[in-house]
Amino acid sequence: MTKRVEVTVKYLGVFATYTGKTYEDIELPSKATIKDLGNALTRKYGEPLKTLLGDISGDNTIVRFAINGVVATLSGSLAEGDEVTMFIFVSGGG
Amino acid sequence: MKYGFNGRILDINLSTGSTSCIELEEEFLRTYIGGSCFGAYFLLKESKKGADPLGEENLLVFSTSIASGLPLPGFARYSVTFKSPLTGGVGASEAGGAWPVALKRNGFDGIIIRGKAPKPVYIWIKKEKAQIVDATRIWGLFPKEAAKVIKDEVSDVNAKMILIGPGSERLVRFGSAINGLRFVHGRGGSGAVMGSKMLKGVVVSSGGSMPVANPDEVRRIIAQFNEQAMSMAAFAIPSEEGSAGYVIFQNEDGQLPTENFRKGSIEGADRINATSFKPYFEKSEGCPGCPVKCKKCHGVSSAKYKIDAAYGSPEYESCATLGSYVGVTDTLAVLKANELCNKYTLDTISTGGTIAFAMECYEAGLLRNSDTEGLDLRFGNGDALVRLVEMIGERRGIGDLLAEGVKRAADEIGGGASQFALHVKGLEIPAHEPRVKPAVGLAYAVSPTGADHCTLEQDPSVEPASPEEVFSHLRKLGITRRLPLESLDNEKIRFFARTHVLFSVFDSLNVCLWCVAPSSYYGINDLEEIIHAVTGLDVSGIELLRAGERRLNLMRLFNLREGINKSQDLLPGRFFEPLRGGPREGVSLDLEKFQESIDKFYSIMGWDAQGVPTNGKLLDLGLEWAAALNAEE
């Protein structure tokens, strides 16, 4: 049987709007990365979350991820019980 | 035949009541492009050295560009340029809305306003003619009420108008000009300058037309924007929630200015984020021709606060400066404070920054209850925030002192208050943390208008996690390496200098910063295409970048003429102290390294060690006339 890890995803702001949740536990294969999580969320929710996440597979996303409060790259690996927060790339203001 | 622009600027002297026109040759238009580049040109050339910013001799220049003022996504915009009552240097501020579209359709690309009217007036423009109209009856009214009266008077229910409210009339130094009740020229005090001229408004007829050179091409550009741009992630939050949707992410990342920039995050930030405004949502609105509709309107009719949705809802900056900046997370207090700022026509950034300053002074015992009419000015007091905005707008009690902005208020209070007065050149600091984004700090320090967050592509675009579609635009500017967010090495300084010039292009061309690359849609090649489709002129990206550089040099020369020099290219001491609490705890700027970065920026710009543009650089830009003008002074 394939080993799995369960992580908690924290949805802030527009992510909460798009998913209808503020927290969610997601099960992934062991040795899963942030990229795998992004792809799983894209598959699960489709549009409009998909637009926001962009081309995760092609490393082309405005979303940044933090694992347990520390900003991680898309190749960052996930462990059982990790909390992942998604941020939006903010490069200016209104 | 001219397409996309009129080649004509209206010239009005309110002292004499005279109106005339300045014809603009194609060569001039290509050289200076428009927006605040036009404004800087006229300000330097035609205003008197040492003019009182709130006196008769100041100039107020409203200007579109060769391609702006059109119902094309990102292009229904314009600038206002003036000598700032806060900084004493150049003031420039851009806004969107229907006003610039109406102006162009009625025969003008811009307006220069000189002098001071003997009594309150507004300017009425219709079919290439301008008239100065008595505004005594509406002086003192909020913009919405004033607009109703004006529409009746000019018999045009769709007339477009720039107006000021009672705060700007009372010469609050950070008074803003506002159009359509919610499209604001936030920074620098343009509203106060209007107030000093007894100018209640500039009203333009809703009729007229503006032909473009290639209508099919313009239609193609619009269709492409609607299809491609609107599927970009960059537009998701502006479109869905407005920029107020960024608050929560800034907070989670530890860079949401809190309690006068002592901290970078606040408990309860979700209450000042756009998602908390949803129960009060009334409508989304955009500038003419733009599908993004980033302007949100929320109305409240609670027992405590009634909030008129007509004045629009707070953007990110306003949520932060009227929220975390003053320690307030009360949703309705922030919405109300924003509405009051727009009714009195006050810049929300300077208003929030000034109130945060007062709160820190109160905490330190420099302001007491006897100074505040008993108002408890502790950080976090939402009721005090709302009361203080009104007091500033009315120049009542302590509000009269705070209406002068933090720099002057600190001088008056004394006793070390200046350490709490966060400003650059007199302009209060926007809601972006320079300790986390040092290029933003550099922009605050050297921007000709004072602390201005809209003068560069910010540091996250060049950091390792920046998306490829963003970074690829930077590569085209010669930025080849991704850099740590908090770095300030030579490559980061180059990144700043190049994007500083690029953003100067945007403010000359008057294109919306939400719509342009690196972070968003229009690259420089797209801008070339748009100018060609609209005007028929082949203006290259190189020409545009030269115009952007020209604007920065004109503004620098204006400031130097007015006595603003290298000594004012600095940041408040707070940013060299560690950030307290939150995920970015302990982060600070290194003073020596920061000062070196300013010197290096001067070198890159072709300025001498004192930050003065060299003759070679001015010759290069075709600005010999400006150098000669300054030498004569």
- Which segments of chain A are poorly predicted (pLDDT under 50) over 5 or more consecutive residues? none
Strand order across the largest sheet of chain A:
2-1-5-3-4
Radius of gyration of chain B: 23 Å
Mean pLDDT of chain B: 96
Give unreliable regions of chain B as ranges.
none
- What helical percentage do the residues of chain A reach? 25-40%
Q: Can you give the helix content of chain B as a percent range?
A: 25-40%
| Beta-strand fraction estimate of chain A | 25-35%
What class would the helix/strand composition of chain A place it in? Answer: alpha+beta
Elements of chain A, N to C (H/E) = EHEHHEEE
Shape of chain A: globular
**Largest β sheet strand count, sense and barrel closure of chain B:** 6 strands, mixed
Oligomer: heterodimer
Radius of gyration of chain A: 13 Å
Helical stretch tally of chain A: 3
Biggest sheet record of chain A: 5 strands, mixed
Terminal CA distance of chain B reads 40 Å
Count of individual helical segments of chain B: 23
**Greatest contact pair?**
A-B, 30 and 51 residues
Say how many strands of chain B there are.
18
User: What would you call the shape of chain B?
Assistant: globular
